[in-house]
Every structure is written in C-alpha cells, then in structure tokens.
UniProtKB/TrEMBL annotation:
UniProt cross-references to PROSITE patterns, sorted A to Z: CITRATE_SYNTHASE
Source lineage: Bacteria, Pseudomonadati, Pseudomonadota, Betaproteobacteria, Burkholderiales
Keyword terms of this UniProt record: Acyltransferase, Transferase, Tricarboxylic acid cycle
Pfam families in UniProt: Citrate_synt (PF00285)
PANTHER family given in the database record: CITRATE SYNTHASE (PTHR42871)
Top-rank taxon: Bacteria
NCBIfam families, A to Z: cit_synth_I, PRK05614.1
Catalysis: reaction(s): oxaloacetate + acetyl-CoA + H2O = citrate + CoA + H(+)
Protein name: Citrate synthase
Species in which this protein is naturally found: Piscinibacterium candidicorallinum
GO molecular function: citrate synthase activity
Pathway entry: Carbohydrate metabolism; tricarboxylic acid cycle; isocitrate from oxaloacetate: step 1/2
Family: Belongs to the citrate synthase family.
Length: 395
C-alpha cells in the first residue's frame, strides 16, 4: 500500500493515547479510569462517575458536593434557546433537534472559548453535562406539544431529568427512586466507551481547535446513526414487530430467518465489534430491567418475555455460540427505557446525554496532550491521473 497503511474502518489504527476507558473484549471487561463498570454501576451515581471520567479519580465527599453544586448551577439554558427550538417542525426527530441545540450553544457562551485555557475547558465540560438533560427534555416536550419544565436543583441529576421529561403543569410529580436509579445506571453504562465512532468524531472535529459545543454537536450527529447509538431503537422495533406477528409463538420461525444469511435479518441487540465473550453492560442492564419491571408490576410484560425467549434460544444455538454473539447493552436498555415511559425516538438522545461526559473528557484529554495535532487521515488515491480540460463542445 505504498507510503501509508490502508485501514478502512480503523480496525487496527490507534489514533491517540488515552487513560480514560479500557475494554478487554475477550474477557468482557470495561474499566473507567481503572474501576470496573460493575462496581461503578452499583456503588456510585452518575455525577460521581462523571467526576471520575473527567478528573481521573473518584471524588471525596467535599469534591462530590462541590462538583454537584457546580453542575446544578448550570442546568438552566438561555431563554433564547427556546426560540431557536421553536423553529423546528414538531415532528422533527429529537436527534435532529439535539444536534442543532448543542451546536447552537456555541453562540451563547463567549466567556470560555479559549480552548488552550484549562479553566475554560472545564467550564464548557460542566455546562455541557449540566445542560444536556434540559435540552433533551425540551426537545421531547416540544415534539409532544407540552410546556417546558424548568430544572429543579434540589433533585438529583437523574430525578431532575425524569421530572423535566414527565411533569405536567398543575399536577404534582412524584419521583420514583427505583426508576431514577435505573435511569442513572443507564447513564453510567453509556458514559464512555473509548474510541468509538462518535468519540473519534469529537476528537477529529475538536483537533482543528473548534468551539467545544460545535465538536460535541458533531458527536451527537455521528451517534444518531443506526449502526451506533440507534441500535437500541432498532432492537425495540424488532421486538415490537415480532410481538405484532404473534410473539413468543413465532420465536422459532424468526430465529430461522436470523440464521438465514439471505434474509438480511439480524437479531438486534446481539453481537459486538469488541466484546466477543459477553458485554458486561448487558448483564447489569438485565438486572436493572428486572428491577424496573417488578417495580412497575410489569413482570409479565410481553416484550420482556419475548426478549428472554429469544435470548435463551440464541445462547444455546450453535449459530450464535460459534460466532461469539451475546446480548449487548442495547438488548435490554430499550425495554427499560420503554418501561420508564421514554419514547423510542428519544433513546438515542438519552445515549447522547450520557455519552457527553465521555466526549468532553476525551476532547479535553486530546487538548492537554503536548503531542496533539490536527487529525488528518491519508488516502489511497484511486481516481484519474492528471488530464486536460476539454472545451465544453468536446466533452
Ligand atoms: N444477528 C445475526 N447474525 C449476526 C449478528 C446478529 N446480531 N451479529 C453478527 N452476526 C453474524 C454475521 O452475520 C457474521 O456471520 P458470518 O461470519 O457467518 O458472516 C458474524 O456474526 C460476525 O459478524 P460481523 O458483522 O462481521 O461482526 P462485526 O464485529 O462487524 O459487527 C455488530 C458487530 C454489533 C455490528 C453486529 O454484531 C450487529 O450488527 N449486531 C446487531 C446490531 C446491534 O445490536 N448493535 C449494537 C452494538 S452495541 C452498542 C454500542 O456499544 O455502541
């Protein structure tokens, strides 16, 4: 391949050094800053995890309080954002709205635009983590035609988000701690995943020195695609379609389709590019799924039963076993989100909200690296050699 290594899809190119997230796909291991995801998901909340991802260490009590205080101070968005939002059609996809809103934040915060100043970078990180829930909830309320709900800073990060999503005027909104904890866990499990497509997008975009909100908007745009953040939406659609066609009774027939290479049908929520043993996030999500369905009295939820039936067959079937295909995080997160009342079209927005901390931490790490350069992939040129422009009459 001449001067350059040709590596489509970057299957074997490391574009950066990073100390943030470690994945061992064969062992099914995921560590944020050295801490196993299982421990973070059961012993910490999302904001502690954000602090860890951003700063490299878990906070002590004083640091935790200070961080929570700084995040809550920034949960409001500028009132003018509402006018911008109202310019969208009501039936716009929430990810279209979110890409626009996050990009628009770059037009509001002119006091922290020096990307070479660590204090400016930090304030942008806090603003993004604080405002994402407000923006996602606003995008949702707008598409269903309900009034926006302003943030309440006496509530936890996840409880405040649930309230902004589901509270309606003149009715008291009661926070359900089991559901809040489930949502918080979804956020923890999606907070970072090293150099995936959207994170690499944020790094590449940010490497030109662009405004941080613009770089994160690029990450949101990348995440939107069905091969990335859109998979949980696809998984839930698959379960709903199968349910409509007869549910558990049709599982065998459906599996035959999945195994038929010519059908083009995949078992969504199964398989992973990196995890070839199991996805540790899927195990945690399955537990959460059971807790949420029990709390809501939905143990007999037909979609959950269907998911369990499909999983059982797949885990015993040679097609899946021989290809090392196991459930990934999205297999269960869609069912949990649906039970929480989150509409399918918003699943990727929830993922974006959670991944924002990972994006901004990776962006910050890149800018702090003395070896950092603008990203500029090379190409293998396969077009014409030099040729002459002919007069238009001869073309
Ligand atoms: N259902 C049926 N067969 C599958 C599936 C599936 N879900 N996934 C992979 N295979 C087969 C595939 O046909 C191939 O078979 P063969 O070797 O006979 O040609 C083999 O398994 C390897 O698949 P691949 O597509 O080469 O593997 P990959 O590493 O390129 O793809 C994947 C990984 C996640 C894109 C793929 O497993 C998939 O499409 N899964 C369904 C979509 C999904 O759930 N995506 C969410 C990923 S997790 C979210 C995140 O971490 O961001």
């Amino acid at each position: 391949t001449g001067k350059f290594t040709y590596d489509p899809g970057f299957l074997s190119t490391a574009a950066c050094q990073s100390k943030i997230t470690y994945i061992d796909g064969d062992k099914g291991e995921l560590l944020y800053r050295g801490y196993p995801i299982e421990q973070l998901a059961t012993k910490c909340d999302f904001l502690e995890t954000c602090y860890l991802i951003l700063n490299g260490e878990l906070p002590n009590e004083t640091q935790r309080k200070d961080f929570v205080g700084r995040v809550t101070q920034h949960t409001m968005v500028h009132e003018q954002m509402q006018f911008f939002l109202r310019g969208f059609r009501r039936d716009a996809h929430p990810m279209a709205i979110l890409t626009g809103l996050v990009g628009a934040m770059s037009a509001f915060y002119h006091d922290s635009t020096d990307i070479n100043n660590p204090t400016h970078r930090e304030i942008s990180a806090i603003r993004l983590i604080a405002k994402m829930p407000t923006l996602v909830a606003m995008a949702y309320k707008y598409t269903i035609g309900q009034p926006f709900v302003y943030p309440r800073n006496d509530l936890s990060y996840s409880a405040n988000f649930m309230r902004m999503m589901f509270a309606v005027p003149a009715e008291e909104y009661k926070v359900n701690e089991v559901l809040v904890r489930a949502l918080d866990r979804i956020f923890i499990l999606h907070a970072d995943h090293e150099q995936n497509a959207s994170t690499s997008t944020v790094r590449l975009c940010g490497s030109s020195g662009t405004n941080p909100f613009a770089a994160i908007a690029a990450g949101v745009a990348c995440l939107w695609g069905p091969a990335h953040g859109g998979a949980n939406e696809a998984c839930l659609n698959m379960l709903e379609d199968l349910q409509a066609q007869g549910g558990v009774a049709k599982v065998g027939e459906f599996m035959e389709q999945v195994k038929d290479k010519n059908s083009g049908v995949r078992l969504m929520g199964f398989g992973h590019r990196v995890y070839k043993n199991f996805d540790p996030r899927a195990k945690l999500m399955q537990e959460t799924c059971k807790e949420v369905l029990a709390e809501l009295g939905l143990e007999n939820d037909p979609l959950f039963k269907l998911a369990m039936a499909l999983e059982k067959i797949a885990l015993e079937d040679d097609y899946f076993v021989s290809r090392k295909l196991y459930p990934n995080v999205d297999y269960y997160s869609g069912i949990v989100q649906r039970a929480l009342g989150i509409p399918t079209a918003l699943f990727t927005g929830i993922f974006a909200l959670a991944r924002t901390v990972g994006w901004i931490a990776q962006w910050n790490e890149m800018l702090s690296d003395p070896e950092y350069k603008i990203g500029r992939p090379r190409q293998l040129f396969s077009g014409y050699a030099a040729r002459d422009v002919k007069p238009i009459a001869q073309r």
